Amino acid sequence: MYDSGENTLLIVDDEEINRAILANLFESEYKIIQAEDGQAGLEAIQTYGEELSAILLDVVMPRLSGMELLRQLSRQGLTTRVPIFLITADVGGATMQEAYGLGVMDVIFKPVVPYVVQRRVNSVVELFCARRRLGAEVERQRDQLLFQTQQLAEMGMGMVEALSTAIEFRSDESGEHVRRIHDITCHLLRTTPLGEGLPDDQISLIGVGAITHDVGKISIPDAVLNKRGRLTPEEYELMKTHTIKGAELLSKIPQMREHSAYHYAYDIALHHHERWDGGGYPHHLVGNETPIWTQIVALADVYDALVSKRCYKDALAADVALEMIRTGQCGVFNPDLLACFQQAEPYLRSFYRTAKGA
Predict the structure, then answer these.
(1) Structural domains in the chain plus CATH codes
(2) pLDDT tens for residues 134-158?
(3) Which of 63-72, 165-174, 250-259, 285-294 shows the lowest per-residue confidence on average (mean pLDDT)?
(4) DSSP string of 56-94?
(5) First-last CA distance in the chain
């Protein structure tokens, strides 16, 4: 028995007797649709579309011939989705050559031999069905593989985010620091000329990278990380190594290396303490040798450190912090970055009001 949703056979022939013979051959296996000429066949195809399992197409017909219809179907790409059989009494080589070139699966000559027609049509229909099933399965497996890959990448990224937050708690901070650095970075890239030309998905990846900026602090001993007094020169040199250690750590996480944010995360972890005049560390990069997104994270990190309470200091007022940054007391920053930051800073204060009220 046929399934009207999947097994529909269209017979296009201007001779009623020919349609009747072919319909009789296939009516036990397919739902039969008949069209008396090429134009009616085109209308039937437009109506039934993807329901069609096969099309049996006569060549010589009024209004629209079989070859003219075939040319239209070939241009639409239908011949790659639905098997078309040309039924013809014309044994001319030119017709056959063009028909096969247009994508016909087979040419059947009149008068038809019933068991031959049945076998040839059913075999090809089964082949197309198997190909569709295989294509659907391949598509399903591909989607599943992509989903699994995404899950692994997200799992790896989630681990890094959790690690970054855990490090903030370890250093006696609220854990909101990494989230604020993310939010400040993305805000400046999305709302100021600093992010001009960057698509939103790239800014999102940079934001992910910003979260991992201090991941290297996991390598710093508690006695140094949480020291309440001023660091000794030796301790300060040890603290500075968290940039290199952070980049090394990220590079050793396979899921991180495969993540689209890895390039940004690696550079931010390594260079977020560089300064515009080369006075930063670890590589003393000058000017735009440091990417703009890493420069933004560097400034956001300084601002957040100034206006937040830490184990070694009380929180400063936002106006005081802004003045310290503007006058270079925390290192020299890109003048364009400073201008954009000063303009955005009144809004950035809302991130801290939200955090305190949460």
Answers:
(1) 8-112 (3.40.50.2300), 144-357 (1.10.3210.10)
(2) 766 666 776 665 665 565 555 555 6
(3) 165-174
(4) EEESS-SSS-HHHHHHHHHHHTGGGTS-EEEEES---HH
(5) 65
Look at residues 150, 73, 135 and name the one whose alpha carbon lies nearest to residue 104. 73
Residue 101: half-sphere exposure toward Cβ, Cα within 13 Å: 8
Peptide bond into 221 cis (omega under 30): no
- Residue where the block lists tokens 């994508």: 103
Is 356 noted as a catalytic residue in this protein? Answer: no
Q: Which residue has the tokens 């950035």?
A: 348
On the question of pLDDT at 281 being above 80, the answer is yes
Number of other CB atoms surrounding residue 3 within 10 Å:
11
Report d(CA 252, CA 243) in Å as an integer: 15
Task: State yes or no: pLDDT of 347 exceeds 90.
Answer: yes
- Give every CB contact of residue 3 below 8 A, 6+ residues apart in sequence: none
Q: Which of 110, 217, 240, 245 is catalytic?
A: 217
Largest pairwise CA distance in the chain: 103
Question: What is the Cα Rg of the chain in Å?
Answer: 35
User: Do 6 and 53 form a contact (C-beta atoms < 8 A)?
Assistant: yes
Distance CA 199, CA 202 (A): 5
Preceding peptide of 335 cis, ω within 30°: no
Tokens representing residue 113 in the block: 């031999």
- What CA dihedral angle connects 277, 283, 297 and 238, to 10 degrees? -120
The first and second tokens of residue 214, run together, are 């201090």
Q: How confident is the model at residue 217 (pLDDT cuts 50, 70, 90)?
A: confident
Provide the token pair at 294: 């890493």
Structure token digits, residue 176: 């909101």
Indicate the average pLDDT of the chain: 84
For residue 344, which phi and psi values (nearest 5 degrees)?
-85, -20
**Residue type at 215?**
V
DSSP 309: -
pTM over 0.85: no
Asked if 47 contacts 92 with a C-beta cutoff of 8 angstroms, the reply is no
In single-letter form, the type of residue at position 277 comes to D
